[in-house]
Amino acid sequence: MTRTHCPYCALQCAMHVESDGAGGHTTRPAPFPTSRGGLCRKGWSAGALLAAPDRLTTPLMRPAKDAPLRPVGWDTALDHVAGRLAALRAERGPDAVAVFGGGGLTNEKSYLLGKFARVALATSQIDYNGRFCMSSAAAAGLRAFGIDRGLPFPVTDLAESDAVLLAGANVAETMPPLMGHLSAPRLIVVDPRRSATAERALAVGGLHLAPRPGTDLALALGILHAVRAEGGLAHGYIEERTTGFDAAWRHCAGWWPERAELTTGVPAADIRAAARILAGAGRAHILTGRGSEQHANGTDTVSAWINLALALGLPGRPGSGYGCLTGQGNGQGGREHGQKADQLPGYRRIDDPAARRHVASVWGIDPGSLPGPGRSASELIDALGTADGPGALLLFGSNPVVSAPGAGRVSPRLAALDLLVVADFVLSETAELADVVLPVTQWAEEDGTMTNLEGRILRRRRAVAPPEGVRSDLEVLHGLAVRLGRSGAEFPADPGTVLAELRAASAGGAADYSGATPERLAAEEALHWPCPDGAGTPRLFLDGFTHPDGRARFTAVDHRDTAEAPDADYPLVATTGRVLAHYQSGAQTRRVPELAAAEPEAFVEVHPDTAAHSGLVDGQWARVVSRRGATEARVRATPGARSDTVFLPFHFAAGQRANLITDTALDPVSRMPEFKACAVRLEPRERA
Ligand code: SF4
User: Between 216-229 and 245-252, two packed helices, what is the crossing angle to 10 degrees?
Assistant: First the structure.
């Protein structure tokens, strides 16, 4: 029996993995305060992932561009990839090669992938799928507090709160054990859907505010307006611990609740009720998720929620706070170690001369040889195979054919590449299109560290030997780097050696891991970063914020409409999200029989009147059509749904991909796409 952590979401519930005596493996909850000894359905069934029947155990390669994939040996595959990369770089320069990572990769993989791109390939063209799911909250957190740690307090603090506002987070389905911390506080759930979390809030006397998608910012302004009217502003805190309130208030002053109702559709009485709950709570938290972030105004929307939290005096007050609920398993660590286009390890900016000097000294290179910032994920996808864009892509831990916005554009861009290399443990929808597929280890087959949504560094332990023929991502990077002329010592394949280097590279940065020693990790210490030698930091901001003046900053923000408005041809708004049985692109969970049986196909949640207006009834297959394409889903007539909004989960493949319809419009600050709102129409599938 081996203690490790769940392969899926950012709660990183602890579990024991053990043999079932018949060649398979089971998972059982392990004690862990963050998950209160719980697992959700995905965690309980994670052992089945290890027995995926279509597990890749040998590299695959196409002998010619349109030929089928064929098994080859590791040396053949790596020699071929390295040779093609070297030739492309010689012909077109280092930026002709791009790297795409993932928020589920361990800290060690995220770190070595960033180093591989900047040192072995010398390319600026690296980004990762976390750009799609946390970057707006990260940008808003940085500008407000000077640092971005999803939750700057332990999850266990939530149980002591009197009131929690959850904006755009369906926790009851995405991370159910977290709900155990939310049974005491009054809940205010902000979600266009009457989600499972909203139902729970209503059942215990809380509030559900259901704004029109894309209007959360106006709702936050309306609540702040009402808080002030209720006399709930924390004047002393605002004076002593913040700057910028007056400028922020000038944008808020016109958003009295009745005006906010006109824009959001949330009754003014409910806006005032939310304000009274928050203003009257001794301890309160405001938490945001993807629903607030995945918009073309996502960074400003999160800033509006942070402004509300600051006006109430919550961040840095013991027992209160603001936090972002990171989604992917290593969504927090994945954005700290350098696989993001604009960052170096330690959560350092790549355009900061001091950061470049420090990281270059750890890497033993000239700081001047480090490339600058590259394209963001969605822009990188658009550039693939173009005259000015990369001609080769190395992809680790991601499945953009399903998960990228406007997914119909992805396959043509991948097909235009000279070389697509995908490292995965199964033949994902993206791997199916690759020129070379490299079979890699999965969660319970590898050692490493993950960082959960509280910034808590966790030990991932190897519980099972990987199948013969499979290598770790670190071994793949080592093998390619050596073939590209780097020394093996620069790119170690051993996770412990990589962690030691990561600790040195992060030292002195915002996300300082230097005290995360193997001994402390093995002892399961509560190691929240920053953890320089000495204790970790479970709670940030108690003595001051990270800006040089120690104060948090209000940001002056105002409502903007979504990039795409409904019209006569596309009269409805589609929004997307997750369901309990699946995780991200579904590449893993669709392979677990229990989960596939629970949610076997795409659905579209729609008000019965709206369905009838489109000639549809419950259970019928519909086409959901936007300006970018169409997807198919079975109608779930839902009386609690807004009549102007439909919801689709994004875990399904082929013609059921929700991202075939989503918008590629980007937030100007974070470059995060607007997954959560696009204009659509519904029609019976049979009409197509
Ligand atoms: Fe816990 Fe998330 Fe895994 Fe469910 S998916 S068991 S909530 S870590």
Answer: 110
